[in-house]
Amino acid sequence: MLKRLLLALASASLLLINGAHAAAGPYTNLVLLTENFPPYNMAKNGKNFAQDENINGIAVDIVREMFKRADITYSLTLRFPWERIYKLTLEKPGYGVFVMARLPDREKLFKWVGPIGPDDWIMLAKADSKITLETLNDARKYKIGAYKGDAIAETLAKQGLKPVVVLRDQDNARKLVNGQIDLWATGDPAGRYLARQDGVTGLKTVLRFHSAELYLALNKNVSDDAVAKLQAALDQMRKDGVVDEIMARYL
Q1: Is the pLDDT score of 3 beyond 50?
Q2: In this model, does residue 124 exceed pLDDT 70?
Q3: Structural domain spans, the chain
């Protein structure tokens, strides 16, 4: 009888331990997902799959430091397509995805840490350009370069601005410098990063016509305590100037 009681107590203890680990798992060892989205997230080999140290970028460096300060463990995978990693984070406890725009229809689907950085739409001009713009409508008289199939190009076309599109957005940096276009409609900081990769610096922003902020989105199962620790770490990094330092490495 005593033996059976001891076995029962041991089994109950094991269940409690396993239950505790299961409850803690989703937010003490998070599974983080991301995609190729320069300069925020990038596979070092340029492909659509990479893990852990084979991934870099502004957001990746910020997230790594944030988790280090919050003392929360994680794994990191870059994969394709976006729809897949979005769905995994939405459905799987302990998952997170970055960087994601915090839109009204997504607000209650995830827990959020951020902002990590901006995702604005801008008009860039050469450093010595005399162009000044107050509104998007003011850009109608200029030749505008954009990226084929991109939301920015499609938005401009819908508004009748008739952008000149290219297959690679970085080609617009050289076209701008060479005078083939007057303005470059691109993302910020993506445009500045692509220009720098092509050896073009000193471009200036003459109009910012759309603004959004990008976040780390976490599955609703992740504990509020973990979210609070991550947010506090990010807020302190911003105060310490660490976020600006990381941005400066890439831009």
Answers
A1: no
A2: yes
A3: 26-117+214-250, 120-210
